[in-house]
Amino acid sequence: MGRIGIAIALLLFSLGACSSEGTSPPPELAPGRIDARFPRGGAVDVIEVTMRDRVAARSVALVGPTGLAQPAYALEAAPQRSLPRQYGDLPASASPQLGIRGAPTTTSSAGEIVTTAYIRVPDVIDYRRNWRDYRIRIEFGSSPGALRAAEVPAPPPG
Hints:
Elements (H helix, E strand, L loop, with lengths): L2 H16 L15 E4 L8 E8 L3 E7 L5 E3 L2 E6 L3 E3 L9 H4 L6 E3 L5 E8 L3 H7 L4 E6 L7 E6 L5
Antiparallel strand pairs: 1-2, 2-8, 3-4, 3-9, 5-8, 6-7, 9-10
């Protein structure tokens, strides 16, 4: 490959690396993302809430239309595991455009914690009728001065 070929390859590489539309699969959860769902094949009255953030969630609760909160019965927090990259050492957004497939490498999400909470729905019949009026409230942090809260809509019944 001559100098022109190398220059073209570098140009394509840099264009692919700048592209916002990569075809590689997204990580399990984007940073700061909260995912609530009824797991397939699981109990019909249990909501699984998964959060990825720099700090672990300290409490998670399902809040009903009347304001009554049902706390999670289980809360598990663990550092984010390393995720395999699909296309070797090149940025994932560049590899598909170049048609290069390298040996898998690992990338890590340093400093991120995945917290998973399980909430039992207290009244399944009411939840099925009024699930749009339910919310999931999450508190992050470990010290009172550094607490932060988030609220997300409850998932549709499973």
